[in-house]
């Protein structure tokens, strides 16, 4: 049985038509393991681990190995995502053209406005396709990086000497598989945002400057203040996550101690004492998780409030300080 993507033509790959037979079966009944296609060779753990382990042995660096093995793939995804950013910013440009045409009244160039609308439709269609493909490629990267790191960690765990086994308990190793690796994967799959977000901000500020002039810099100052506040929250959240990881390791260590000496605990009727000890560890974890949720709520509040504050401050400067009229083309575009 061959994976259908290997025999699909370019239109099927572009529009994901190759997945329709599986979706049709899933629409009729619950999927079973036999309904799924075989995993392609390049995505099998044996192939991934062989390539990644060879790269890791050269410099003994995870960052170096990830860049060497998946760097081109990351760059391709970043290029596609940068094009989607440009497509996103095309909407306000077309809106400005339409509103300026409407403001002219009888002198409106109908065909110019029509061309802008048609071009917007085409750009949005391209953006939808590119967004879908970049998300799909990012998920493939996530799967490959996950397989590579988990295989490397599993192999390292099997080769631990006695001294290392005393330092690292089974609970700590389990947390590495479930939690710690996920943090590395989250960073690696979103690393393109490090340069995409500044690029998007720079383009937006340039477009705003063309519309409302130096009032843009006032809005930029508000953005900088917001970023500083987000930085403080992110730093606090990072510290809270570190604390949570430590508390998880402590709790898992206690759990392993309990299971390792369960007969002694039962014979001496120490269940309540160990339950109390385990509950205290869990309560500390819950308090830290509540603190993280509180920080995230402030982070989301700033995320949604920032655009509104920037808009209000910028428009206030345009009307009250610069004494310029706030036309529909300026207001709706900015």
UniProtKB/TrEMBL annotation:
Keyword Repeat tagged: yes
Key words, A-Z: ATP-binding, Membrane, Nucleotide-binding, Repeat, Transmembrane, Transmembrane helix, Transport
Record InterPro entries: ABC1_TM_dom, ABC1_TM_sf, ABC_transporter_C-like, ABCC_6TM_D1
TM ranges: 62-93, 211-233, 292-322
Bilayer topology annotation: Multi-pass membrane protein
Domain of life: Eukaryota
Keyword Hydrolase assigned: no
Cellular compartments annotated: Endomembrane system
Gene Ontology CC terms, in alphabetical order: endomembrane system; membrane
Chain ranges of the ABC transmembrane type-1 domain: 75-334
GO molecular function annotations of the record: ABC-type transporter activity; ATP binding
Pfam annotation, one family: ABC_membrane
The protein's name in its UniProt record: ATP-binding Cassette (ABC) Superfamily
Annotated organism of origin: Thraustotheca clavata
């Amino acid at each position: 049985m061959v994976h259908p993507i290997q025999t699909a033509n370019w239109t099927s790959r572009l529009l994901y038509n190759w997945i329709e037979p599986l979706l049709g079966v899933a629409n009729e009944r619950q999927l079973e393991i036999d309904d799924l296609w075989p995993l392609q060779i390049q995505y099998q753990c044996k192939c991934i681990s062989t390539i990644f382990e060879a790269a890791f042995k050269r410099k003994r660096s995870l960052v170096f190995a990830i860049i060497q093995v998946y760097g081109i793939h990351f760059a391709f995804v970043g290029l596609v995502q940068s094009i989607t950013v440009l497509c996103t910013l095309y909407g306000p440009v077309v809106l400005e053209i339409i509103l300026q045409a409407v403001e002219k009244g009888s002198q409106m160039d109908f065909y110019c406005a029509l061309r802008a609308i048609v071009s917007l439709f085409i750009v949005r269609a391209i953006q939808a396709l590119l967004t879908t493909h970049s998300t799909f490629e990012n998920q493939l990267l996530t799967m490959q990086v996950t397989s590579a790191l988990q295989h490397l960690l599993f192999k390292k765990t099997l080769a631990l000497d006695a001294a290392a086994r005393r330092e690292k308990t089974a609970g700590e190793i389990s947390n590495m598989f479930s939690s710690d690796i996920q943090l590395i994967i989250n960073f690696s799959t979103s690393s393109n945002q490090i340069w995409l977000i500044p690029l998007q901000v720079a383009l937006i500020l340039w477009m705003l400057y063309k519309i409302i002039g130096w009032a843009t810099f006032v809005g930029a100052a508000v953005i900088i203040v917001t970023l500083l506040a987000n930085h403080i929250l992110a730093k606090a959240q990072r510290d809270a996550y570190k604390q949570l990881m430590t508390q998880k390791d402590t709790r898992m260590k206690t759990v392993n101690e309990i299971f390792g000496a369960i007969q002694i605990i039962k014979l001496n009727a120490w269940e309540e004492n160990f339950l109390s000890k385990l509950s205290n560890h869990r309560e500390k974890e819950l308090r830290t998780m509540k603190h993280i949720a509180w920080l995230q709520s402030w982070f989301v509040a700033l995320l949604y409030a920032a655009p509104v504050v920037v808009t209000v401050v910028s428009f206030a400067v345009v009307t009250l300080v610069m004494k310029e009229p706030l036309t529909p083309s300026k207001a709706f575009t900015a």
